[in-house]
From TrEMBL:
Listed name of the protein: Glutamine amidotransferase domain-containing protein
Regions crossing the membrane: 12-32, 39-58, 669-688
Alphabetic keyword roster: Membrane, Transmembrane, Transmembrane helix
InterPro entries: Class_I_gatase-like
Length: 692
């Protein structure tokens, strides 16, 4: 119960002053001159003033509020090391039991570091969790905070946190831990395919050792070298990027006896491989309506260096003009097809026919170029069916189909075959989903027989239109019509010539994304996503090996023809191995080289400054054999705001003076008959004295 007095005047304060001040002056003057009855007049004035002031006694019934105490529990992955999880659980149970004895504390338990979001697992952010626990609490009601952690906190402020209450930290682990780790000092994000890339790394030990250590270097899961490093020194490293797209470079060292964990004995660098400009040789047999279609497309591709020749004056054309007066450039056949043929990633013959421009022997060189990994595209026209067809040269060994000599001049819609609907080159071409396809017609097909490889597009009368084949280590494509320029010119609405031609060229040049059989995996947050390209109807499930060595099986679901997808939510950060059939892939889930694993030694240093700035303390949960427990907890003592908040074996939490008003009782002093009686008594006494 809280008693207090309050004044509730019957009239406003200005009017009250206007009425009482003159009367008070008259009463005081009477007292000064000792006039008869002045004392009674003064008493009557006081009674009148008291009645007008209307004093009221208030009796407040209040309920005291509790101090809010935050119990922040670190559940990050570094807490899984050794006995830290067990120590944390025992400390949490003990603290809850001890805090439960104090009715003046409202305990809020917050477990931090378990979020599934990858960006929240890169670091241990306990102060962010602490801020969330106190977000709806007035500063006067904050009693303090207790953190149970290994001390590796990455958002600790340099000074006091934003509240005026003690912060205490109880550290798991022990002070004699040993660990060794490896990290990249310099790792570029991009590298040229097939070219050496310079990097640097460092092996770090908690014991400041300086001896040698072997470092295994792996690229995309395959070990490529063993480096000899010196602990504590920055070491140079040179790796060759094997392919375009995402590449994973991994460094690993062996675990030492007594080492805390081998989680940070690996370091990962994700490097995007970039190809140097691809070199393409385009040879046009003669000028024709679609000659510039290939040229314009390849010239517009920034990743392609194009060399283009058009045969304008074949050797059999003799008109008597002296050679030195011609403005034409002689076709450098020997330089292109003997000396520098290996420099080209793709050779395109666009309506080319054998007219003695190339010696017969050079066709052998081209076939050998394909067998050893080169790429050849035949954009066929009527010449391919004629007597001078290149199919009648030694190049026939590299060609996927021989001509029948027939040229079919008939309007048709190019259509995808069943294989073409699944093949990466033609899958999902714009306009292919409708029937007829939403593109213009073509009017010529070159007849062939016994096609090899994969027929992905068909023309008039279901004849092969686009063939894709492998020869030895190289690839060959054959487009059996010269009408593609109709799409480029917008005839009947045109068609996806850019999309189709670019895919053909890049498939021939072995672009990884256009492989028929391809397995890729990637980490999105804490979800492992798997993508399988295949020409089969069902690739079967994918097998996954987690960073800890566990094995998982994930079913792959069909998303579109030739593409199967699968995903699995994970809880481990690290490198995952994915396999399906004969294909394997690597993917890193979670943050790369996260600070959570950069330093896993438990420490008191990170939290010492903010704890001491609030009057709190930092201490280890040291083993206690006397009590038979893995942890020893300090006693908890409620303290006032001005008192000390920690001692050698105890920690203090503030209590608040805040309360909630439940009810108020009012007792007016001059209300009712009592007030009226007192006022009449004073007035009557004054009148009686004045009357004598």
């Amino acid at each position: 119960m809280n008693w207090s007095i309050s004044f509730e005047p019957l009239i406003s304060w200005p009017l009250l002053a206007l009425a009482l001040v003159p009367l008070a002056l008259l009463a005081l003057v009477g007292l000064w001159f000792r006039q008869r009855g002045s004392v009674f007049r003064f008493i009557a004035l006081l009674a009148l003033a008291a009645a007008l002031f209307n004093p009221v006694f208030l009796n407040e019934e209040r309920e005291p509020l509790k101090s809010v105490v935050a119990l922040i529990v670190d559940r990050s992955q570094s807490q899984d090391i050794g006995d830290r999880t067990k120590q944390t659980d025992e400390a949490l149970a003990g603290l809850q039991q001890r805090l439960g004895r104090f009715k003046q504390f409202d305990v809020r338990v917050v477990e931090a570091g378990k979020s599934e979001a990858a960006e929240e697992r890169t670091e241990t952010r306990l102060f962010g969790a602490l801020e969330g626990a106190f977000r709806d609490v007035p500063p006067s009601r904050i009693g303090g905070a207790i953190m149970v952690t290994d001390g590796e906190v990455h958002d600790a402020p340099p000074g006091a946190p934003d509240f005026n209450a003690p912060l205490h930290a109880l550290i798991t682990g022990n002070d004699h831990e040993k660990d060794r780790r490896i990290r990249f000092e310099n790792a570029p994000r991009f590298g040229l395919v097939g070219k050496p890339l310079d990097m640097t790394y460092r092996v770090i030990s908690t014991e400041n050792e300086t001896g040698p250590v072997d470092v295994r270097v792996s690229v995309n899961g395959e070990q490529v070298a063993v480096e000899h490093a010196t602990v504590g020194q920055a070491m140079p490293l040179q790796v060759t990027i094997p392919g375009a797209g995402r590449n994973i470079v991994e460094l690993a060292i062996d675990r030492e006896p007594g080492e805390l964990t081998d989680t940070n004995n690996r370091a990962i660098a994700l490097i995007d491989g970039i190809r140097e400009n691809l070199r393409v040789l385009l040879v046009s047999g003669e000028p024709h309506a679609g000659e510039r279609t290939w040229r314009n497309l390849l010239k517009s591709d920034a990743s392609v260096d194009l060399v283009h020749f058009t045969i304008l004056r074949p050797p059999e054309k003799q008109d008597g003009t002296p050679i030195n007066e011609l403005s034409l450039i002689a076709f450098p056949t020997r330089e292109l097809f003997v000396e520098k043929i290996k420099d080209f990633d793709l050779i395109i013959f666009d309506r080319y026919q054998h007219r003695d421009v190339l010696p017969i022997l050079y066709y052998d060189y081209i076939s050998e170029y394909v067998e050893k990994g080169g790429a050849l595209l035949i954009a066929a026209g009527p010449e391919y069916a004629g007597e001078s067809s290149i199919a009648r040269t030694p190049l026939m060994a590299a060609l996927p189909a021989m001509p029948t000599g027939e040229v079919v001049d008939k309007a048709f819609y190019p259509r995808l075959t069943d294989l073409g609907q699944r093949h990466p080159v033609t899958r999902g071409l714009d306009g292919s989903a409708s029937e007829p396809p939403h593109w213009s017609r073509w009017y010529r097909t070159i007849g062939v027989q016994n096609p090899e490889g994969e027929v992905v597009m068909k023309g008039a009368d279901n004849r092969p239109l686009l063939l894709l084949d492998r020869k030895g280590e190289g690839r060959v494509g054959m487009l059996l019509s010269d009408q593609g320029w109709l799409w480029a010119r917008g005839f009947e609405g045109g068609g996806p010539h850019v999309q189709l031609y670019r895919r053909i060229a890049h498939w021939l040049m072995k672009e990884p994304e256009l492989e028929e059989e391809r397995l890729t995996a990637d980490g999105r947050g804490m979800v492992l996503e798997i993508r399988r390209q295949t020409m089969a109807d069902d690739p079967g499930p994918a097998q996954i090996i987690t960073p800890s060595g566990k094995t998982l099986t994930v079913k792959l679901e069909k998303s579109e023809p030739g593409v199967f997808l699968g995903s699995v939510e994970t809880s481990e950060i690290g490198l995952y191995q994915v396999a399906n059939g004969d294909l394997t892939a690597l993917a890193h889930v979670g943050p790369v080289n996260a600070p959570e694993f950069a330093d896993v030694i438990s420490t008191e240093n990170r939290l010492k400054a903010p704890a001491e700035a609030t009057g709190g303390s930092v201490r280890r949960l040291a083993p206690s054999t006397a009590l038979g427990s893995d942890v020893t907890l300090p006693s908890i003592v409620p303290v006032r705001s001005a008192g000390a908040a920690s001692g050698s074996d105890w920690i203090g939490l503030r209590t608040t003076d805040d309360s909630v008003l439940k009810a108020v009782s009012r007792v007016p002093l001059f209300g009712g008959f009592l007030g009226l009686g007192l006022l009449l008594l004073a007035m009557g006494s004054m009148w009686y004295r004045e009357g004598r």
